[in-house]
């Protein structure tokens, strides 16, 4: 138990269970705040992508190029995009 008060004012203080509950609640509130920050950031990014629509005013498209090692994936993407891509 932690002692409560100062000097001649002494009380029972927090029990271990109360201390654990308080710490859990503080951690929970901290995590909820972090989740809200991520939600807010992602919403801003989503609206920005929707508003700008990519670098040429087009909708953004996600493409995955998969294949074995040394199959020429980077070469294919470079040839199609006209950019030098190394990975």
Domain tally: 1
The tally of beta strands, per DSSP, is 0
> Total number of helical segments?
2
Uncertain ranges: none
- Largest sheet, if any? none
H/E topology pattern: HH
What share of the residues lie within helices?
40-55%
* Strand proportion: under 5%
| Cα shape | elongated
Distance between the termini: 58 Å
Multimeric state: single chain
- The radius of gyration is 27 Å
Q: Which structural class should the secondary elements be placed in?
A: mainly alpha
Mean pLDDT: 81
Task: Give structural notes.
InterPro entries: G_HFLX_dom (IPR030394), GTP-bd (IPR006073), GTP-bd_M (IPR032305), GTPase_HflX (IPR016496), P-loop_NTPase (IPR027417). GO terms for molecular function: GTP binding; ribosome binding. One of its GO terms (cellular component) is cytoplasm. The chain has 87 residues and is mainly α. It has one domain. Helix content is 53%, strand content 0%. The chain has helices at residues 16-52, 73-81. The radius of gyration is 27 Å and the shape is elongated. The model has no long low-confidence stretch (mean pLDDT 81).
Characteristic key phrases:
87 residues; 0% strand; Hflx-type G domain-containing protein; GTPase_HflX
Tell me the layout of helices and strands.
Layout: H1 16-52, H2 73-81
GO cellular component, one term: cytoplasm
GO molecular function, one term: GTP binding
Domain Hflx-type G: 61-87
């Amino acid at each position: 138990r932690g002692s409560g008060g100062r000097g001649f004012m002494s009380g029972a203080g927090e029990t271990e269970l109360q201390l654990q509950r308080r710490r859990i609640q503080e951690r929970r509130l901290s995590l909820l705040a972090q989740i809200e920050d991520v939600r807010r950031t992602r919403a801003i990014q989503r609206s920005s992508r929707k508003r700008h629509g990519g670098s040429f005013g087009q909708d953004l498209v996600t493409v995955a190029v998969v294949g074995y090692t040394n199959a020429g994936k980077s070469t294919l993407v470079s040839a199609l995009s006209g950019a030098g891509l190394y990975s």
